[in-house]
Structure formats: structure tokens, C-alpha cells
Amino acid sequence: MNLKNKKILLIIGGGISAYKSLDLIRLLQRKGCFVKVILTKTGKKFVTPLSISSLSKNKVFEDTFDEKNNGKMDHISLSRWADAILVLPTTANLMSKLSRGTANDLATTVILAADKEIFLIPAMNVRMWIHQATQKNFNLLFSFGYKFIGPIDGEMACGEYGKGKMSSPRQIISYLEKFFKKKDYFKKKNIKAIVTTGPTKEYIDPVRFISNESSGKQGYEIALELERLGVKTTLISGPTNINYSKDIKVKRVTSGKQMFDIVKRTLPADIAVCSAAVSDFKPLIKNKNKIKKRLKFNEIKLEKNPDILEFLGKNNRYKPKLLVGFSAETENVINNSIDKMKEKYCDMIIANDVSKKTSGFNVDFNEVTIIDKKGNTHKIKRNSKKFVASIIARKIMNSFLDIKKNLN
């Protein structure tokens, strides 16, 4: 049972679908879950604290500051207690508040303070769901890392039919079981991943270097997402301005040679994602002192940097079970990326058009195409790098599980 002993924090919002939370609590209890509930002021208009507490076998949390709680901060303790947080029904109003980062009650404060997966379960009239403002908030919340269950097509309480109906408790349970099944598998099997990210600096003299525009944000978000999904992840990063989370192990490097050496020392790994923009070339000689402009200096002799992706792909001793490369291109993006995938013996390549100023290098947004060696493609339109990372990480998980099945 994938949900046995899981700790689920349920946040009940204001909407007619709130009554379904009682059935959900029953199902979670039958699955062996521990359940705690936060009931919002508007949620109280549809379900009572007494009915919830009798089902969950726990007190119902309503106020941000509880005088009987001996100074314990519920918004922190509850979010740290939970394995997952479910918000249902997630109304259009609540989506709007979360997209703005509002934290004016216990429910929104817990969500904002949470370090666990948050599942939003929308329920609203079809016109409200398809409204431009709601869709804008949906995309924004998705980019923040929230996961959505539903909505589905169906008949509304108002009598209208369309998308906006809340997923049933059984559908919610099924989604959670699939989520935890994959997460628990990666944790139990101690699956390890290496992610490289950022640029490298190849110094000509103490003050000048060869580098590129990579910010390292995309690789960092992929590493974070893999770690959240239960993969033991090491991020090997070139010089960036990122304030790294303490949730992942980070090894910092400067040059391409240093990154290559650290990758080798971190092996073996089950998964490797090479998203770093390693400088292809480095100066043959680094001058000990700053090169003066008055001196005659006609050329800089270069040599190739180690090709980390090629090393991992062609060396059977070190090759991970799943090797993912990145292909930063400015023209013939797909064809060049497919060629690179074949040349480097990758299982998957992320084609990245870096010619656009609104996505790619040194911005918070990206637009990529995921290509696997079977020829399957999945284009991700321009979105936040966090959103792009969530799709890439899921593709990596599913591909890895497919490989394991074929090996067994």
C-alpha cells in the first residue's frame, strides 16, 4: 500500500465540493494514512469541525495563533509534519490569493511556509475555470511548483456542465498512490543522480576568462525536482549567483576540467543530467600575471576541454543507466540536437534554442524540446524554468522506470 503511514495535511476551502473532503478523509484512513485538517472560515460554512475531528481522530486547526498550543507555530509545525498537503476545493479566489503570495490566515500561511509537495484540487463553475484571470493564475501557480489534481469535466452544483468539477475522492487517492509509488521506489532503491549546471570560467590570466551566459538556473531546478521526487541528487555547479537550497548536495567548481574531475569522483550514478554549458575550449597557457595592453599579444592558443557528456556516453564503465544531455543551439535546433544525442550516446537530449532573448541563457524562462533515442519528442512551450524542470524530471523518472523494466 503506497499510502500506508503517509502523513496527509488536508486544507479545506470554501465551496460546495468541501463536503467531499469527508469521504476523502475516510478513504485516506482506510489506506493507513495519518490525517490532520485545517478548516478555513469559508470551509466551515459547508462542513463542521466536529464531523472532521471525529473522522480524522485529530483536532481541527482553524486559527493562526492558538493560545492552547504553548507557543508552537502551527504554520511551521504542520507543514513540517506532513508528507503531502492537499488543498480542496481550491477555489478561484484561493488560486488568486496563492498566486499573489497572500498569507493572511492559517491555510495560506501553511502553504507559503511549506517545504513539501502541495496538491491543489480545483472546483468552480466552468466559466470561472476558463476565465483568463484563472488560467493566468493556474499557469503561475504551476510555475511555482504546485501540483494540480483536476479539475475534470462534469455537471456542476449550479446545473451547468463542463470543466471545473472537482476530482472525486477516489481519483485523488489514485493520483496520490501513483505519486508516492514512484517517489518511494526511488528512495528505497537509493537511486542516485548527478546534475551538472552553470557555465565554466577558463582563465586567460588572473582577471580575464572565457565563459558564457549560462545562469545555471535550469539545471538547479531539475536537481531540486529530482530530489523532491525521491532521487538522491548531487548538483555539480559552475560559478553562478544562485542561492542554493540546503535540500540538495552541491559541489562547486570553476573550470571545465574541475567539473570533469568532480563528475568522475561522484560516479557511479544511476542518472546523469548534463545541463552545464561547459566551455568547449580553454587557454593552453594561463598567464600568472595580468597581460598588459602595451605588450605585444597577437593570439591566445586554445585546447579542447574534456567532453563530460561524451565521456559518460562512450565509457561503459562509467555510463549511467540513463544519460540526459542538453543541446544549446542557435539554428537547426532539432536536427543538431538529434545528431548530438547519437554522437554522445545519450538516452535523451533536451534541445534548447538559446538564440531567443526571452528564454534560455540568463533568464528565468525556457522553451525546450525533449527528444529520446526512439525519436519521441515533447515540446515545452515558453514557461518558467521551474515548470520546465518539473516536466523534464517526470520524463526522466518514467524513462528510468522503463529502462529498469526492460533490464528485468
Q: Give the mean pLDDT.
A: 90
Outline the low-pLDDT stretches: none
Rg (CA only) = 25 Å
CATH homology superfamily name of the largest domain: CoaB-like
Query: What class, by secondary structure content?
Result: alpha/beta
Query: Which CATH architecture of the largest domain?
Result: 3-Layer(aba) Sandwich
- The number of strands is 20
What top-tier CATH class of the largest domain fits best? Answer: Alpha Beta
- Main sheet makeup: 8 strands, mixed
Distance between the termini: 22 Å
| CATH topology name of the largest domain | Rossmann fold
Our estimate of the beta-strand percent is 15-25%
Shape: elongated
- Count the DSSP helices: 13
Structural domain tally? 2
Proportion of residues in helical segments: 25-40%
Q: How is the largest sheet built, in terms of strand order?
A: 13-12-9-14-17-18-19-20
The quaternary state of the protein chains shown equals single chain
Compose a concise summary of this entry:
The chain is an alpha/beta fold and 408 residues long. Helix content is 36%, strand content 24%.
Walkthrough of the structure:
The protein is α/β, with parallel strands linked by helices and 408 residues long. It has two domains: 7-185, Flavin prenyltransferase-like (Rossmann fold, 3-Layer(aba) Sandwich), CATH 3.40.50; 189-407, Rossmann fold (3-Layer(aba) Sandwich), CATH 3.40.50. The protein has 13 helices and 20 strands. The strands form five sheets. The protein has an eight-stranded mixed beta sheet with strand order 13-12-9-14-17-18-19-20, with helices on both faces. It has a six-stranded parallel beta sheet with strand order 3-2-1-4-5-6, sandwiched between helices. Strand 2 (34-39), helix 2 and strand 3 (60-61) form a beta-alpha-beta unit. The two termini are 22 Å apart.
